[in-house]
Design goal:
The complex is a heterodimer of chains A (about 475) and B (about 625). Chain A has 18 helices and eleven strands. Chain A is of the alpha/beta class and about 475 residues long. In chain A, strand 6 (about 65-75) and strand 7 (about 80-85) form a beta hairpin. In chain A, helix 10 packs antiparallel against helix 11. The model of chain A is unreliable at about 135 and about 475-485 (pLDDT under 50). Chain B has about 625 residues and is an alpha+beta fold. Chain B has helices at about 85-100, 120-125, 130-135, 170-180, 215-225, 240-250, 275-290, 295-305, 305-330, 340-355, 360-375, 380, 395-410, 420-430, 440-450, 450-455, 460-465, 495-500, 510-545, 550-555, 565-570, 600-605, 610-620, and strands at about 10-15, 25-30, 35-40, 45-50, 55-60, 65-70, 75-80, 145, 165, 190-195, 200-205, 235-240, 265-270, 330-335. Classes of the chains: A alpha/beta (about 475), B alpha+beta (about 625).
Chain lengths: ~475, ~625
């Protein structure tokens, strides 16, 4: 397919407004197959403004007189306004953006064309073989799966039962097992009608089932949409804001996800039990729980490399359907079908953990923001497709660049790292009381509040830390030439 | 002490109100003349000053003993279980007596002795000198002068003696105006902005009723206007809601009629009164203190309490002041009803936005001395120091500290002091350990001879200055000269570190602040070392004609390698002296957190059948 068919008007004169904090930008607007470009006039700064079309979540057009206005709401929650000369041009450009931003085909997406300097194809795609988190000393294991297919006939499966028996047998003598079902007992039971269900007590001796219902799917997406709506309103009264914050229930979902992960982690660490986590498919809330539990218990998953490996293993390779879940972010008018901010929920929980243990994660808020942005729209191939199988078919690993190699470039490090990191060998038990959880302003209010004071403060922290390293490492400055005096 | 019948009770349990599984510490409870002390079996001490106790409650007897719940003014809540009801009853009665004193002379400050001699004590009181402060602002000058009209508190009992007024305002005008203002609190200077030549003035409401006028008052306002050469009009900001101000007219009070005063621009800013604030905070604490709180409960409680809305209104009013001064070079006159609550909040916050000096440790002390203590904020009544009218108690000053905290959150580099400083000041407005906040106005303080009989808090805070410093402070940064806070709703948050100060488990387990502060301190130290060493080397080079440095010399000047970074992080550190707020705890405990009611299931034994099969499973292995 040719992108040019979808581009009716290649370019137009336009002015771009990027929110109250940034100055407007004037120049020539240009639509290409994957990008929206704004090139300022020759006398202005040579900087090109570039937007990946894939990151457009919703588009709104308005015409008045002989100009038009396009409002772009992006998947990273940014809102952009383009004032364009010419009604025809406005409508054409809007139509092109609409068509190009929602192309279904994976292999014509931008990651298959993106060839940045300094990166080689195939780099950083290979991590250690997938392996659940395994505590080598204590021999407790954390497992994940999907629901058993019990069905209305209450079927059993000898192999499945044997497998879980073997898990306990392989653990320390006397170990017990807990199955954390991320659905309510009611829902799990109902799943039998459609062929699913949950483990029967009698069939899995030594294992005990706990139900911890976590929100997923459409309700989670709606919670996200409502929160973002509330965050976009600068004029609202305090009462309105607080009631919307309570009403959207986002922080309640964060609390539930974190406490379930803590429960699983506590089972391993304190009770010496083996833990199996599953919901229905084992590709959404299950992953939130297993990945967070590892972060809580395992210091190695809190390093820069360890965290990337965790995301790669517990999310990408575990088959979280990124393409379906992140097809739209919070602004789309379409009724959500498969969209759900499960991955964002995980990132938010990690952020809360980082706030409560500000020295114990090697990566900073910047890393979490980058992962959110790239999961929804990215020039890299890492979050493409819905499963390993699909990625193989599309040859993602050989034909696109890995996000990890992009992030691990030296110039990115300052944004992504936590300057105060000190390895902490202990488990991190966060407080999940509502007073201890905070709205992640850095994400939800990223584009609506002036970032200067907090960014400047962060810069100062970096400076203090680097000074510290400098002075610590410095010897009295006697250079060789001085000695020869 | 006639109030103390039981001085020591053993086997008392202390419950943590937020931990799971009713984890309790067992220990011994001691009752002293000034404190309630609990020493648990780890020998950890919890000291509670009697003056900090807001309420004591004896709950119904349980099987384990008699519960005693103590709520403190610094937002500590303790829940003891006393084994014998008789002991519990004695302690309860003693605390009721000890926490409410009838006379000032029975307050802790009059018996507190930090082992200083008289001259040291006097020097402490002289540390903050308001005359010096007005000089720093640039008054007296050609437009403003010191008035002796209130020399013997003749005109206004609740004002200080030293008052600054426009040079052209004669004594008869001042006297006339004071008779037309509630409690005689006529318009005087609160802050003078030197470069804009604009003033922030304060007063109480005029006794205007529906139509009364006072020429002297009109003249005084005009004089304030004229004292500002940069602008011919001035703002009059009534900090009350319009409706309240209107209601006051019926009682012969009210607000300025724009028609009677030349060149004033009058406006209301709608801050609620002390009664609304009291019940608002009460409601907030009820919500945030309840066990098993859901996220929804917390936010709807925050909303229904209205507390953050009030904080937003106070800060919003301060922004109005700062804007008038900076963008229009206009002077502003601020009042509420009596001019000692909302007026103190708004004037002090306005000055804080305008003048970086007030954002330093010492400057903040000066600000409190000036706009709160000297201008007669009724600390003793508002904090309930003595057994008095509970309707006079209100968290006006706490609310002011919270506004300052919100500013420190929005401008992390603009303040020399940190949160611990604000918390410590809050601790002491209620402690009655120092004389500064005792009494309701300067006249009363003089009569109590506080400067002879008690100590000032400020030198003790300055002694611990390092603890209260913000490592990110940028004193020279131009962008922080005047603060322009954004008062959009989502910038206001629940101040957990104040209202849950003592609920250890709710706080972050590591403190970035301590780490950065330590690093910063060490950087400075090391830089000095380097400089020292470099100069030593230079000296050596000059001395040694042949210019060869021996190896020994080089070794001797090498600084000790600091191994602070890692060792520091796994140590518990206390920010506040004498209490256990805001600590750094690296190792957290899952039992401190109620992750779920299911957590208890972990500890339940499995049914017998299961464990049998389980045993089989293990044997097959």
């Amino acid at each position: 397919m040719e992108f040019s068919e979808l581009i009716r008007t290649g370019q137009a004169q336009a002015e771009l407004l990027r929110g109250p904090e940034a100055p407007p930008l004037r120049g020539t607007l240009c639509v290409t197959g994957h990008h929206l470009l704004l090139s300022p006039g020759p006398q202005a700064t040579p900087d090109l403004w570039l937007l990946l079309l894939r990151s457009v979540d919703s588009i709104e057009k308005r015409v008045a007189g002989d100009c038009g206005t396009i409002t772009l709401r992006c998947k990273d929650l940014r809102v952009l306004q383009l004032d364009i000369e010419g009604v025809e041009a406005t409508l054409n450009i809007a139509r092109s953006i609409e068509a190009l931003s929602s192309l279904e085909s994976v292999i014509t997406s931008f990651p298959f064309f993106y060839r940045p300097k300094g990166l080689r194809l195939g780099d950083a795609w290979h991590f250690h073989p997938p392996e659940r988190y395994y505590k080598r000393v204590a021999r407790e294991v954390l497992l994940r799966s999907s629901q058993p297919l019990i069905g209305p006939q209450k079927r059993r499966c000898a192999e499945d039962e044997a497998l879980l028996r073997a898990v306990l047998a392989g653990s320390r003598p006397g170990a017990r097992g807990f199955i954390v079902d991320t659905r309510s007992a009611q829902t799990a039971k109902q799943a039998r009608m459609t062929g699913g269900g949950t483990e029967a007590k009698a069939a899995y001796p030594g294992w005990k089932r706990l139900h911890r219902p976590l929100e997923r799917g459409r309700p989670l997406q709606e919670s996200f949409v409502h929160l973002v709506e509330a965050c976009g309103d600068l004029e609202q009264s305090m009462d309105h804001w607080l009631s919307r914050l309570a009403g959207c229930r986002w922080l309640a979902h964060v609390k539930e996800a974190l406490s379930t992960a803590c429960l699983a982690a506590q089972g391993m660490e304190r009770e010496g039990a083996c833990i199996l986590v599953h919901g229905a498919e084992g590709t959404d809330s299950t992953l939130v729980v297993t990945s967070l539990a590892q972060l809580i218990l395992d210091p190695s998953s809190r390093t820069m490399a360890g965290f990337q490996e965790l995301v790669e293993r517990e999310w990408i390779q575990a088959g979280h359907p990124f393409q379906l879940r992140c097809a739209h972010s919070a602004f789309s008018h379409a009724r959500p079908k498969h969209e759900a901010p499960t991955f964002l929920l995980f990132l938010d929980c990690v952020w809360q953990l980082g706030r409560q243990f500000p020295l114990s994660l090697e990566f900073g808020e910047g890393m979490l923001l980058a992962l959110f942005d790239h999961a929804y729209a990215s020039p890299f191939g890492t979050f493409l497709c819905n499963s390993e199988q699909e990625r193989c078919l599309c040859e993602v690993r050989t034909r696109t660049h890995s996000l990890w190699s992009g992030l691990n470039q030296l110039k990115e490090q300052r944004k992504l790292r936590n300057p105060l990191y000190v390895p902490n060998p202990l488990a991190l038990w966060p407080s999940v009381e509502p007073q201890s959880l905070r709205l992640w302003q850095g994400l939800f209010l990223r584009w609506t509040r002036p970032p200067e004071p907090s960014e400047a403060a962060w810069e100062k922290v970096w400076q203090i830390v680097t000074d510290q390293e400098k002075t610590e490492g410095s010897q009295p400055t006697v250079s060789a030439s001085e000695l020869q005096l | 002490m006639e109030h103390i019948r039981t001085t020591k009770v053993e086997q008392v349990k202390l419950l943590d109100r937020f931990s799971s599984s009713n984890k309790a510490l067992t220990g011994t409870l001691y009752l002293t003349a000034t404190h309630l002390l609990f020493i648990d079996f780890h020998q950890k001490e919890t000291w509670i000053l009697h003056h900090h106790i807001a309420s004591v409650e004896k709950l119904a007897l349980t099987t384990s003993g008699c519960p005693l719940v103590i709520q403190c003014k610094n937002f500590r809540t303790v829940h003891f279980i006393v084994p014998r009801e008789r002991d519990c009853h004695d302690i309860y009665n003693s605390l009721l007596q000890l926490s409410k004193q009838a006379k000032y002379e029975d307050l802790y400050a009059f018996s507190y002795n930090p082992k200083q001699n008289d001259s040291e004590r006097l020097r402490g009181w002289q540390l903050i000198d308001l005359a010096e402060e007005y000089q720093r602002m640039g008054v007296p000058n050609s437009n403003w002068q010191l008035s002796d009209a209130n020399r013997d508190y003749k005109i206004c009992e609740t004002y200080p003696k030293e008052l600054y007024v426009p040079r052209i305002a004669s004594k008869p005008i001042i006297v006339g105006s004071s008779k037309f203002r509630s409690k005689g609190r006529f318009p005087v200077l609160s802050y003078y902005h030197q470069s804009k030549e604009a003033a922030i003035c304060r007063c109480s409401q005029p006794l205007s009723g529906f139509s009364a006028r006072c020429l002297e008052d009109e003249h005084l306002l005009q004089a304030i206007s004229k004292a500002n050469p940069a602008n011919h009009y001035m703002y009059v900001v009534d900090t009350r809601p319009r409706l309240n101000a209107m209601a006051n007219r019926a009682a012969g009070k009210g607000y300025e009629n724009e028609d009677n005063y030349s060149n004033i621009r009058f406006q209301f800013v709608g801050i609620e009164n002390i009664h609304v604030m009291r019940s608002s905070l009460q409601r907030l604490l009820e919500v945030s203190g309840s066990r098993g709180l859901s996220v929804g409960d917390l936010y709807s409680g925050l909303q229904s309490s209205g507390w953050l809305r009030h904080v937003q209104a106070v800060l919003g009013a301060a922004v109005v002041l700062a804007k008038a001064v900076t963008t229009e070079s206009a002077s502003v006159l601020v009042h509420c009803s009596d001019g000692w609550d909302r007026t103190s909040q708004v004037c002090s916050l306005g000055s804080l936005l305008l003048d970086p000096y007030y954002r330093t440790v010492r400057g903040f002390m000066v600000l409190i001395e000036k706009d709160w203590i000297s201008f007669g904020h009724k600390f003793s009544e508002r904090c309930g120091h003595l057994d008095g009218d509970p309707k006079e108690v209100s968290p006006v000053f706490t609310q002011f500290l919270e506004c300052v905290w919100h500013l420190t959150e929005q401008f992390p580099q603009a303040f020399e002091f940190n949160e611990a400083f604000l918390l410590q000041i809050h601790e002491h407005i209620h402690s009655c350990q120092f004389g500064n906040f005792i009494g309701n106005c300067q006249k009363e303080r003089e009569e109590l001879k506080l400067k002879e009989k008690t100590y000032s808090l400020w030198p003790f805070l300055l002694e611990d200055r390092v603890k209260y410093l913000n490592p990110l402070y940028q004193p020279q940064a131009q962008e922080f000269a005047v603060l322009e806070p954004n008062t959009v709703s989502f910038n206001f948050k629940f101040w957990r570190n104040m209202y849950h100060q003592f609920d250890r488990t709710l706080h972050p387990r590591q403190s970035v602040f301590n780490i950065i502060a330590n690093m910063n301190e060490q950087n400075k130290q090391l830089e000095n070392d380097i400089k020292d060493l470099e100069s030593q080397i230079k000296q050596c080079k000059n001395k040694q004609a042949d210019g060869v440095l021996t190896k020994e010399l080089l070794n001797s000047v090498r600084p000790e390698s600091p191994t602070l970074k890692t060792s520091l992080c796994f140590k518990e550190q206390t920010l506040l002296p004498g209490n256990d707020a805001l600590r750094t705890i690296d190792s957290s405990n899952p039992a401190d957190n109620r992750y779920s009611e299911y957590a208890e299931e972990f500890s339940k034994p499995d049914p017998a059948v299961v464990s049998l099969e389980y045993g089989v499973a293990r044997m097959t292995c």
